[in-house]
Amino acid sequence: xxxxxxxxxxxxxxxxxxxxxxxxxxxxxxxxxxxxxxxxxxxxxxxxxxxxxxxxxxxxxxxxxxxxxxxxxxxxxxxxxxxxxxxxxxxxxxxxxxxxxxxxxxxxxxxxxxxxxxxxxxxxxxxxxxxxxxxxxxxxxxxxxxxxxxxxxxxxxxxxxxxxxxxxxxxxxxxxxxxxxxxxxxxxxxxxxxxxxxxxxxxxxxxxxxxxxxxxxxxxxxxxxxxxxxxxxxxxxxxxxxxxxxxxxxxxxxxxxxxxxxxxxxxxxxxxxxxxxxxxxxxxxxxxxxxxxxxxxxxxxxxxxxxxxxxxxxxxxxxxxxxxxxxxxxxxxxxxxxxxxxxxxxxxxxxxxxxxxxxxxxxxxxxxxxxxxxxxxxxxxxxxxxxxxxxxxxxxxxxxxxxxxxxxxxxxxxxxxxxxxxxxxxxxxxxxxxxxxxxxxxxxxxxxxxxxxxxxxxxxxxxxxxxxxxxxxxxxxxxxxxxxxxxxxxxxxxxxxxxxxxxxxxxxxxxxxxxxxxxxxxxxxxxxxxxxxxxxxxxxxxxxxxxxxxxxxxxxxxxxxxxxxxxxxxxxxxxxxxxxxxxxxxxxxxxxxxxxxxxxxxxxxxxx
Length: 608
Known about the structure:
- The protein has helices spanning 3-8, 18-72, 78-95, 189-240, 255-296, 300-315, 351-357, 360-365, 371-380, 421-445, 455-472, 486-493, 495-511, 539-551, 582-598; strands at 99-104, 109-112, 143-148, 154-163, 178-187, 319-325, 330-335, 344-348, 384-388, 391-400, 403-412, 476-483, 518-523, 526-532, 568-574, 604-607.
- By secondary structure, it is an alpha+beta fold.
- The strands form three sheets. The protein has a six-stranded antiparallel beta sheet, with helices on both faces. Strands 2-1-5-4-3 form a five-stranded antiparallel beta sheet. Strands 13-14-12-15-16 form a five-stranded mixed beta sheet, sandwiched between helices.
- Strand 9 and strand 10 form a beta hairpin.
C-alpha cells in the first residue's frame, strides 16, 4: 500500500483526538492551578494556624505561669513543688496541654505534670527545645517553637518566664525580675489532622469541579467546534474517495460555519474542474479513437460498425444506433442486436425520409428511443439533448452540404455517462466530416448499378491479397463469373430488364460470400470474386456455391413481366505462390471461365 492509500485510510486515535487532549489539558491546568492555590492557601493557613495557636498558647502560658507563681509564693520545699505539680496536672487536663514543666533559671525541673520529668535538667543555652531560655530580656517571652517527637507527634512549645514579685524576697535573695521558666507543650496532631482533612476536602471539591468543568467545556467544544470539524472531515474523506457531490453541513453563523461554506464552494469548484477535465479527456480519447477507427477503413459499412463500437465502448450507453446514408441510394444502421455479428442493417431510400417515416424497420431499430427526439433532430439539423430523471437521451445529426447523411442516437444513464453538449457538438462535426469522406470514398470504389466494388478497387485488393498469400503462405483463390446468354436478355427484354438482372445477380453473389470475400463487377456481365484463405480443395465448392445461388431461382421481374431464368458460368483458379502474380491468376481464372463456357455453361471449372 502506498503513502496516498495510507493517508486515505488514516483514522485519528482516541488519544490524538482534540476533545480528549483538550479535556486532559483542562484537567492538568486545573489540577496545577488548584495545587498551586492549595499550596499558597496551605502556607497561609499554616502560618495563620501557627500564629493563632501561638497566641492562644501564650495566653494560656501566661495564666498558668501567673497561677503557678501564686502557688510558689506559699514558700519553698517539696510540698510547694508537689502542689505546683498537682496544679500543673490539673492545667493539663483542663486546658488541653500535653505537658507542663516548671524550671528554675538553671534549667532544673522543679515541678512537672509528668513525675518522670521532675528533677531532670534542661539545657537553657542554645537549646532549640527550650527557645529563648537563655534570654534575660522580658520582651523575648513568651517564646514559641514547633517540634516533632521521634514518634512523629507535632508539638507547640511555649516558654514563659515566672516573674519575680516583692513577696519572693521572703524566701529568696532578690536577683532580677524573674525567678524561673514554665514550659508548656501543646499537642497539635489532632488540629493538624483536622486541617489536613479540610485541605483534602477542598482538593476533592476542586478536582470534582475541574472534572465537571472539563465535561462542560468538552460538550461545548464538541457542539461548537468538533461537530463542524467532524462534518468537514467526513466530507473531505468522501471527496478523497472520489465522491465529488459530497458537501459538508453548515452549523450556526460562527467562524467554523464560514469555513464550511468556503469548503463547500471549494468542493463545488473542484467538482466542476474535475468534470471539465474528465469531459475533455473523454472528448480527446473519443475523437482520437474515432479518427483512428475511421482511418482503418474509409468504406461506409466498416466505418459505421467501427464508430458504433467506439461509441459503445467509450460512452457505455444503454442503447445506441448509428445511421449513415450511402451514395447509392441506401442507408445503413449499426446497432446492438441479439447477434453481434449481424449488427449492421441496411435499407433503401434516403436516410432522412426513413427516419421520419417511422416505418416498422426504423421503429425496431429505434426501440426504446423517443421518436420525437429523432424527428426534431432531422427537422432542425441540430443536436437534441434531453435529461429526464434517470435517463439521458440525445440525437446527433450529421450534416454535409445541408444534407442529412447520418445520425447518432443514444440513451444512457446520466450517472454512467458524462457528456456535455459541447462534446457532442464537436463529436458531430468530426463524425460528419468522416462520414462525408467515407461516402466519397465508397462512391469512388463502388459500381453504381450493382453496388459491388468496381474493377479498379478489385485490382488493388487483389494485389494486396497476392502479397499477403505470398508473405504468410496462406491460401487464395480467384473466381471469374459470367452471366450466360446475357446479351439475349438485353435483346429480348430490354436494357432496363438487363440492369435489373445484373442487380439481382450481384445481390445473390454478395449474399453467398463470406465477409472476407470481395465481389467485384469486372465489366459488363462479368464478375470477379477474391477468395482469401481458400485451399485448393475448397475452390470447387466455393465456385459451386456461387453458381447455385444464381441458378436456384429465376429472377422475378414483377407482376407485369415474367420471371427470367438466369445461370452463371464460373471459373476458379487456386493461387500458386511460386509462379503466380495477380495478372497470371486473373488469366488462369479467365481461362477456366471460358472452359466452363465451352463445356456447356452453368457450370464450374477449376484450375487447381
